[in-house]
Amino acid sequence: MGRLAYVNGRFVPHRKGQVHIEDRGYQFADGVYEVVPVADGHPVDENLHLDRLEYSLSALRIAMPMRREVLKLVSHEVIRRNKLTNGLLYMQVTRGVAHRDHKFPKHAKPALVMTAKQTKPPGAAELNAGLGVVTRPDIRWKRPDIKSISLLPNCLAKQEAVEAGAGEAWLVDEAGRVTEGSSTNAWIVTKDKRVITREAERRILNGITRRVLLNIMQAEGYSFEERPFTLEEAESASEAFLTSSSNFVMPVTKIDRRMVGNGEPGPLTQALRKAYIASFAPDGSIQ
Ligand code: PMP
Questions:
Q1: 3-state class of 76 per DSSP?
Q2: CB 179 within 8 A of CB 204
Q3: In the chain, is it the N or the C terminus that has fewer CB atoms within a 10 Å radius of its CB?
Q4: How far apart are CA 267 and CA 287, in angstroms?
């Protein structure tokens, strides 16, 4: 059987999954989403993702579409029916279907869609090359801490990155400080081996990979700081990397036209990638 999607209570072939034209997600981007990594058929850090889903929903005053335990059961079923081993589980909740009107509808029921996608971790060549990033002004709204499906500025920045031959765009605030990537959190390592990433206030999405990595660093005694860093600091950093559910920990070897350090993935970045992956796949099956 091919890919299946869960759409408002039913499993349907992925290519036949459809939502109503007056779904507020389609009309207003009035909804939120989560992307959960799946390793060996199991969701990784599932509760942290569901906590963030609840946080995003409550910030927008959208109800959970079903109780957390049921949501888990459905998502496990999506993984099972798609025979997903390693990849990503996507869930999206919108405010639901209503006549188009900006104010919240009185009686809409939250709409829920889930899909699953098998992915391949990057190979040695990709990891050794690392990613180049370009920098762009952060033109997003003031609540990127909400994992909203309204992602137009993120899409524009990613497209510009790709057109410039890079893998990601790092977004820069009015004060010249990096907020985060278009779909990843941004990190640098200073020359004295301190790992820096912006604190999770309202200007960034508090990545689950970010949080888990910070916990690992705390437990393993790495020296780190949660604070904004400027573009100049990033350009003179000895290492840089990004994190997300789909990239784990990925070396950044170029920022705009400048090489980071000697242009190769740094030792701390490599150690942190290993440590992060070991937190959910200790058998070494994923590099
Ligand atoms: N920042 C943004 C803007 C993102 O879209 C994402 C990924 N969805 C992240 C950071 C990384 O978050 P996570 O580690 O939870 O995937």
A1: helix
A2: yes
A3: N
A4: 15
> Which contacts of 276-283 are long-range, i.e. CB under 8 A and separated by 24 or more positions?
276/209, 276/212, 276/213, 276/216, 276/243, 276/248, 276/249, 277/248, 277/249, 279/212, 279/216, 280/37, 280/39, 280/44, 280/45, 281/39, 281/40
Domains of the chain, start order: 4-118 (3.30.470.10), 124-278 (3.20.10.10)
Q: Model confidence over 234-282: pLDDT tens digits?
A: 999 999 999 999 999 999 999 999 999 999 999 999 999 999 999 999 8
Q: Largest Cα–Cα distance in the chain?
A: 58
Helices 208-220, 46-59: axis angle to 10 degrees equals: 130
Determine contact, residues 235/133, Cβ cutoff 8 Å. no
Which atom, in ligand 1's list, is nearest to the CA of 185?
10
Pocket test for ligand 1, best of 145, 152, 184 (most atoms within 8 A of CB): 184
**Average pLDDT value for the chain:** 97
User: 148-178: per-residue pLDDT in tens?
Assistant: 999 999 999 999 999 999 999 999 999 999 9
Residues with CB under 6 A from ligand 1: 35, 154, 180, 183-185, 205, 207-210, 243-245
Atom number in ligand 1 closest to CA 154: 3
